[in-house]
């Protein structure tokens, strides 16, 4: 049983003022595997003060100095890959292959920030003005539990690359991962105060960061409800905000698609990260004329998908992160049936043979319509909804009839037709016949899926403020 007592402020591991201990669970067994001591508002204030004091010097560092610091961070985080993998498996329950990619992503994303910084244009001449992009100041970085280490590293590396300093409020449910990352970052030997990490509750530490006048910007990944709250709270001090929120992403299967060939992509997109992915393709739009054929192939496909022990190499879907999340998913499975959608596979309860752990059966509803709650609300578990459509125009209209707009997948034989459809879907990202991720491109959502973008030069710009300099030279 691990007890994580320290938070990280001004280059040191310190005991927080906060007194509360929070239980950490292994979602595969439901056992308590550790405890983390949570910081409070005073701890957040101390961290913000340290980041504020460190900002002027860090903002003046050269591109080369920042690249050197980020390289040290990259090496230190990469060296902890195995430890991070173990923390992800035990505390989050990601299946082995997914856990491995999450563990490597934490270092990869720092390397990507280095690439962005190497090529970034901080200055531009516009007519007689020199426009300089200047770092915003202290940033508050708030992460969720579904990829905590990766989000910490991405947000922090980008903030530091831009010349900002940071206070990180990680998910309180991911303290083992946070602990591995913070030890690595400490070893990287950055100047004290440049980054600070305060474990704590969202409504305590997160709230203090959101309201504090010395925080210039919030970068938040999490639910749309908290995202909206942060915009309101931040408005009092006119904080800049970047929000990466929820989704209800459509997978549009065109009537010329080879269903057998595309089914692995449909299921992977839907069950990504055990269904606990903001970009999961949870609304599957299928031509009504070929619905029965699609259902048959989907049923076959899902029967091959294993939900169970994340350490088993054959497992595709691990447990839900918490009992609360498990109950939420069960509730939605009941709601879908009450609404009149037909269960094609899965359903309530644990998968056969599993008596403990927050495991869910991979579940697919069919004959649903887009007005149902299972088609409109983010479930955040392995529950997919097939919605039949009449023609391409109907598919586009259903795809866009949502409060969200984070990601979409279009599957079909004709590249022109797929592209034509993709251009009409209101979404921050549309993938065509692939699930490939391009880290140099902007990532973020339309509508209630977010505000602003992360990744690439767009992500970096979000930590910078343009300053216009116009000079009068009396000698000219
Ligand atoms: P959440 O919104 O409850 O919590 C996210 C983080 O915000 C946590 O660290 C939490 O402690 C903190 N928080 C909670 N209340 C706060 C407050 N009042 N002020 C400041 N911070 C507060 O979300 P979650 O349950 O941890 O994560 C699941 C949600 O995140 C899903 O809705 C999912 O779609 C979304 N998500 C989005 C992306 C994306 O990139 N778009 C990625 C992952 C998760």
Automatic annotation (TrEMBL):
EC nos: 1.2.1.3
Catalysed reactions, as listed in the record: an aldehyde + NAD(+) + H2O = a carboxylate + NADH + 2 H(+)
Domain of life: Bacteria
InterPro entries documented for this protein: Ald_DH/histidinol_DH (IPR016161), Ald_DH_C (IPR016163), Ald_DH_CS_CYS (IPR016160), Ald_DH_CS_GLU (IPR029510), Ald_DH_N (IPR016162), Aldehyde_DH_dom (IPR015590)
Record bears the keyword Oxidoreductase: yes
Keywords: Oxidoreductase
Pfam families documented for this protein: Aldedh
CDD domains the record matches: ALDH_CddD_SSP0762
Start and end residues of each Aldehyde dehydrogenase domain: 18-468
A molecular function GO annotation: aldehyde dehydrogenase (NAD+) activity
Active site (catalytic residues): 244
Transmembrane region(s): none
Enzyme class name: oxidoreductase
Family of this protein: Belongs to the aldehyde dehydrogenase family.
Protein name, entry field: aldehyde dehydrogenase (NAD(+))
Organism: Pseudomonas simiae
């Amino acid at each position: 049983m691990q007890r994580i007592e320290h938070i990280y402020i001004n280059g040191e591991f310190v005991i927080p003022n906060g007194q509360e201990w929070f239980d950490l669970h292994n979602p595969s067994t439901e056992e308590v595997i550790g405890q983390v001591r949570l910081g409070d508002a005073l701890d957040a204030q101390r961290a913000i003060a340290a980041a504020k004091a460190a900002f002027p010097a860090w903002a003046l560092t050269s591109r080369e100095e920042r690249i050197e610091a980020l390289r040290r961070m990259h090496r230190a985080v990469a060296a902890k890959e195995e430890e991070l993998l173990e923390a992800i498996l035990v505390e989050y329950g990601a299946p082995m292959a997914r856990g491995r990619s999450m563990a490597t992503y934490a270092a990869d994303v720092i390397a990507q920030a280095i690439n962005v910084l190497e090529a970034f244009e901080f200055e531009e001449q516009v007519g007689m003005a020199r426009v300089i992009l200047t770092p915003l100041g202290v940033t508050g970085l708030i992460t969720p539990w579904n990829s905590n280490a990766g989000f910490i590293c991405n947000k922090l590396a980008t903030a530091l690359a831009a010349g900002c300093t940071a206070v990180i409020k990680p998910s309180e449910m991911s303290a083992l991962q946070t602990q591995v990352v913070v030890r690595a970052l400490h070893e990287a030997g950055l100047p004290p105060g440049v980054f600070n990490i305060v474990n704590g509750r969202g409504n305590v530490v997160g709230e203090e960061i959101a309201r504090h006048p010395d925080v210039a910007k919030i970068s938040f990944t999490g639910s749309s409800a908290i995202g909206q709250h942060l915009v309101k709270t931040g408005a009092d001090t006119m904080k800049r905000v970047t929000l990466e929120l929820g989704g209800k992403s459509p997978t549009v299967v065109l009537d010329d698609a080879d269903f057998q060939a595309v089914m692995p992509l449909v299921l992977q997109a839907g069950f990504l990260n055990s269904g606990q992915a903001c970009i999961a393709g949870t609304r599957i739009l299928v031509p009504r004329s070929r619905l029965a054929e699609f259902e048959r192939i989907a049923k076959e496909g899902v029967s091959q998908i294993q939900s169970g022990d994340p350490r088993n190499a054959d497992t595709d879907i691990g447990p839900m992160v918490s009992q609360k999340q498990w109950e939420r998913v069960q509730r939605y499975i009941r709601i879908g049936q009450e609404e009149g959608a037909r269960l094609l596979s899965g359903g309530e309860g644990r998968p056969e043979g599993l008596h403990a752990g927050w495991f869910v059966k991979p579940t697919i509803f069919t004959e649903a319509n887009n007005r149902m709650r299972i088609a409109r609300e983010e479930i955040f578990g392995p529950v997919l909804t097939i919605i039949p459509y009449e023609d391409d125009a109907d598919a586009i209209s259903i795809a866009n009839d949502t409060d969200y707009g984070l990601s979409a997948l279009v599957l079909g034989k004709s590249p022109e037709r797929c592209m034509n459809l993709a251009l009409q879907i209101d979404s921050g990202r549309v993938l065509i016949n692939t699930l490939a991720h391009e880290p140099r491109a902007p990532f973020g959502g339309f509508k209630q899926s977010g505000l602003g973008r992360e990744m690439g030069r767009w992500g970096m710009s979000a930590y910078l403020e343009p300053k216009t300099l116009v000079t009068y030279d009396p000698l000219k």
